């Protein structure tokens, strides 16, 4: 006898009037900062005497290198084949070569490196691989303020985010001591961002030592977001930002246990539209990540792989790019420092400035209305934690446009801040 299918009315799927099933975790996602900013600036008519300048979005604007464009064009035949999720060995070898030249690290391209379609998707996807939501209190620790993907990745994986606030008195380092032992014990994944967005702070070796010890004690994975590593402002032996991978080797962890680093071409090579980066580190996690990515369908296009090889193999365009940022920051920072509490960061392409009256949202609204300059209020990049919002009272300025435009924006900010101070 053929068993009859149950059409119990208790099943919403059996009820055509019931709403369709939807992942309830989607409702946990917070609106993205730019969406909140749009709401906060709705109805503001920017002063038409000034042409618009946006320092809001952190999108590189310098031209893409010709050698990358040429490699793309020369590999159009790649459109006709499916790529492997692990990427071409040639690409993984080019990345290994870059890691060797940049950090003096020897990674196995076959087991310790994986190409990704920009670091954003990979930062998100790793949480889906690491988090076991069936364990009570699954927790993901993030710096605060932070790149918003960390929180969304944690929530969609079934974990709860916990935040360590950035401390302005210690070069904006995250205060990991704010996370108590019980929370660390529940932690499955820790995101760190060095150089930091928005603060530009680079994590020094002692901070890595603390985090590795915590990871060993509690068994969590560290995701090290390093996508701004090639934009830095000082010269000298230790001027280039330290990678988590380098820190691991220096601290006697050559197997990179429980560590995955994320690196990207978007900022290094001015190709945010190419969607190309890589993850590197613990071979056991790379293997699990590859399995996940095979099903998720995140193989990199053959054209992008070819263009990425060209980009990783060339350093001249990176040096030139860095020089452009250095010139901009050297010109703009002292100007702004006349009126705002702001200093040259360790790295990255943001200034993280305190506004005179502590009202970051009001500052962004007024600046847009009077001078047609868009900036991102810092409070939108952070969450209330440990009694405060550590982004409040600051604005993030992305110096991504050309130098003349950034300088023009800086002059307008100076005028606006002076005006605010005299009217206070
Ligand atoms: C801190 C941080 N991590 C990761 C990313 C993602 O960059 P991409 O996906 O282009 O590699 C960004 C982009 O703005 C970022 O600011």
In brief:
By secondary structure, the protein is an alpha/beta fold. The protein contains 14 helices and 13 strands.
Describe this structure as you would to a colleague.
The protein is α/β, with parallel strands linked by helices. It has 2 domains: 29-58 and 317-423, Aspartate Aminotransferase, domain 1, CATH 3.90.1150; 67-314, Aspartate Aminotransferase, domain 2 (3-Layer(aba) Sandwich). Helices cover 39% and strands 14% of the residues. Strands 2-9-8-7-6-3-4-5 form an 8-stranded mixed beta sheet, with helices on both faces. A 3-stranded antiparallel beta sheet has the order 10-13-12. The chain has a two-stranded parallel ribbon with strand order 1-11. Helix 7 links the parallel strand 6 and strand 7. The radius of gyration is 23 Å and the shape is globular. The mean pLDDT is 95. Pyridoxal-5'-phosphate (PLP) is lined by residues 58, 118-120, 147, 193, 197, 225, 227, 264, 266, 272, 277.
Which descriptors apply to this entry?
424 residues, alpha/beta, Aspartate Aminotransferase, domain 1, Aspartate Aminotransferase, domain 2, 2 domains, three-stranded antiparallel β-sheet, 39% helix, 14% strand
Which helices and strands, and how do they pair?
Elements: H1 33-41, E1 53-54, H2 66-74, H3 89-103, E2 113-116, H4 119-130, E3 139-144, H5 149-156, E4 160-167, E5 173-174, H6 181-186, E6 187-193, H7 205-218, E7 221-225, H8 244-250, E8 259-264, H9 265-268, E9 277-281, H10 283-296, H11 302-312, H12 316-337, E10 350-354, H13 360-371, E11 373-374, E12 376-377, E13 394-398, H14 403-423
Helix pairs in contact: 2-11, 3-11, 4-5, 4-10, 7-8, 12-14, 13-14
Bound molecules: pyridoxal-5'-phosphate.
Pyridoxal-5'-phosphate (PLP) is lined by residues 58, 118-120, 147, 193, 197, 225, 227, 264, 266, 272, 277.
């Amino acid at each position: 006898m053929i068993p009859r299918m149950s059409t119990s009315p208790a099943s919403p799927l059996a009820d055509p009037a019931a709403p369709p099933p939807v992942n309830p975790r989607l409702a946990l996602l917070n609106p993205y900062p730019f969406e909140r900013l749009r709401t906060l600036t709705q109805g503001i008519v920017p002063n038409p005497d000034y042409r618009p300048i946006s320092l809001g979005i952190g999108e590189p604007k310098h031209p893409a290198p010709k050698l990358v464009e040429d490699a793309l064009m020369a590999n159009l035949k790649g459109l006709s084949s499916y790529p492997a999720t692990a990427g071409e060995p040639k690409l993984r070898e080019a990345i290994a070569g870059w890691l060797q030249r940049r950090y003096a690290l020897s990674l196995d391209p076959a087991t310790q490196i994986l190409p990704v379609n920009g670091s954003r998707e990979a930062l998100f996807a790793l949480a889906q691989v690491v988090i076991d939501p069936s364990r009570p209190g699954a927790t993901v620790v993030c710096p605060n303020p932070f790149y918003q993907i960390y929180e969304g990745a944690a929530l969609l994986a079934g974990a709860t985010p916990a935040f360590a606030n950035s401390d302005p008195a210690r070069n904006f380092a995250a205060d990991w001591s704010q996370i108590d032992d019980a929370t660390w014990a529940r932690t499955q994944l820790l995101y760190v961002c060095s150089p930091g967005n928005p603060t530009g702070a680079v994590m020094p070796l002692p901070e890595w030592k603390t985090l590795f010890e915590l990871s060993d004690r509690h068994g969590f994975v560290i995701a090290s977001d390093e996508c701004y590593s090639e934009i830095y402002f000082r010269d000298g032996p230790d001027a280039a930002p330290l990678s988590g991978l380098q820190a691991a080797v220096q601290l006697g962890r050559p197997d990179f246990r429980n560590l995955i680093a994320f690196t990207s071409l978007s900022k290094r090579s001015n190709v945010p539209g190419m969607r190309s980066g890589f993850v590197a580190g613990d071979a056991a996690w790379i293997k699990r990540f590859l399995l996940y990515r095979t099903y998720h369908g995140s193989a990199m296009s053959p054209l992008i792989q070819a263009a990425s090889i060209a980009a990783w193999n060339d350093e001249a365009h990176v040096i030139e790019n860095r020089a452009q940022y250095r010139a901009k920051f050297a010109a703009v920072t002292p100007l702004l420092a006349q009126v705002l509490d702001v200093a040259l960061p360790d790295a990255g392409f943001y200034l993280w400035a305190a506004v005179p009256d502590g009202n970051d949202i009001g500052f962004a609204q007024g600046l847009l209305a009077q001078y047609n300059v868009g900036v991102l209020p810092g409070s939108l990049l952070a969450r209330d934690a440990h009694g405060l919002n550590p982004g409040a009272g600051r604005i993030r300025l992305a110096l991504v446009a050309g130098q003349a435009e950034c300088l023009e924006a800086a002059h307008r900010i100076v005028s606006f801040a002076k005006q605010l101070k005299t009217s206070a």
